[in-house]
Amino acid sequence: xxxxxxxxxxxxxxxxxxxxxxxxxxxxxxxxxxxxxxxxxxxxxxxxxxxxxxxxxxxxxxxxxxxxxxxxxxxxxxxxxxxxxxxxxxxxxxxxxxxxxxxxxxxxxxxxxxxxxxxxxxxxxxxxxxxxxxxxxxxxxxxxxxxxxxxxxxxxxxxxxxxxxxxxxxxxxxxxxxxxxxxxxxxxxxxxxxxxxxxxxxxxxxxxxxxxxxxxxxxxxxxxxxxxxxxxxxxxxxxxxxxxxxxxxxxxxxxxxxxxxxxxxxxxxxxxxxxxxxxxxxxxxxxxxxxxxxxxxxxxxxxxxxxxxxxxxxxxxxxxxxxxxxxxxxxxxxxxxxxxxxxxxxxxxxxxxxxxxxxxxxxxxxxxxxxxxxxxxxxxxxxxxxxxxxxxxxxxxxxxxxxxxxxxxxx
Length: 411
What we know:
By secondary structure, the chain is an alpha+beta fold. Helices cover about 20% and strands about 30% of the residues. It has 9 helices and 19 strands. Helix 3 crosses helix 8.
C-alpha cells in the first residue's frame, strides 16, 4: 500500500488546521479604512472584512444626519447583465416592470423563487438599453445563469472588479460638487450618470440606504483609492467622515428600510418552511406588476392573494418608553404571542422608540390595537422584564425633504 510521504501528510494537516488563520478579504478601499480604524470592530460581510464602526458608532450616525458619511459598499454583490435580451430576462426574473426603467435610472426591486417566496431584494441600474447592473445582499449567480437559459444575455459577477462607496448626508451634494463632478446637481432621486475620474469614468447614482440626501459611486478597483482621496480632500470643510455599518443600520431603520436575512429570511436560507416570506408579507407588494406578463413566482403570488393565504405582515412600531426592543416578542393583550421585532432603536431624529416587526395576520393588519412588547433591560447586573405598549405606525419613521430636493440644497 502506498503511503503519503510524511512531509506531504504534515503539510496537508497544517493546511486543514490553519483555516482559522485565513483573513477576510479586503476591499479596494481597505488601506484607507484600516488607517482610520480605531475601534477594531470588524464583521464578515460576504467574505470581506468590514467595520461595525471605525471611531465612534454614535458620532458616525450623526455624521450621516448632519454632515457627509462615507461607507464602503464594495462587498455588496454586483452582477453585470447585458445583451439583446437583458431587459426581457430581468423582466422575467424580477417583480417590477423593467421596460419602465429608462437608461440612466435605478429602481429598487426583488425576485422570487417559483413558489413566490422572496430570494432577495436589491437595486437594478440601467446603464444603457442593453446593459444593467444588479446589486444584492446575497449571491445568486447559479440561479441567474439557470434562469438565463433561452435568453441572449450574459450574466457575470463583478463584485471584486467594481468598488463602491455610499456618500450620504446633507453635505454629500456639496462634497461631490466641490470634488469637481460637474453636473451632479442634475441628478434626481434614482438617476445615474457617468463622470470623468482619473483618466477614466465612474458611475454616480442618487441612491442610498439612509433615507437622506445621498449618492452611490462605482469605480473600477484600480481607481478606488484615487476616488476615496478625491472625496476626502473635497469634503474636508464639509465634515466628511468614514463610517461603519452600525451607524448605517440605524439610519436605514429610521428610513423604514429592510435588510435580507435580518428583517426576513430569504428562501435559499430558510430551513423551516414557516420562515419563508412572499413579497406582500414583508412590505414589497408594491413592486409586483401583474400587467407585465409572467415572472418568477407570479402564479403562486396571485394564488395566495386570491385565497388569502398571506400569513404575515411586516410593520413599523412605535413603542412606549426609550429602551430599544431589539428582538423582543410582540404580544396581543399581553398574553398571545403574535410576532417578533427584527430591528429597534431610540431614534434621535424622530424622538421616538421605533422598531420593525413581523406579525402574524390579522395582527398588524386589521388588528392594530392592544399590542405589547416584552423587553428585558439590564439593571445592576439583573434583567428586569418590561411590558411596553406598542402601536403600528407608518414607515418611514422620518421623512427628510432634502432626500428628494432637486437641485439639492447647498448645506
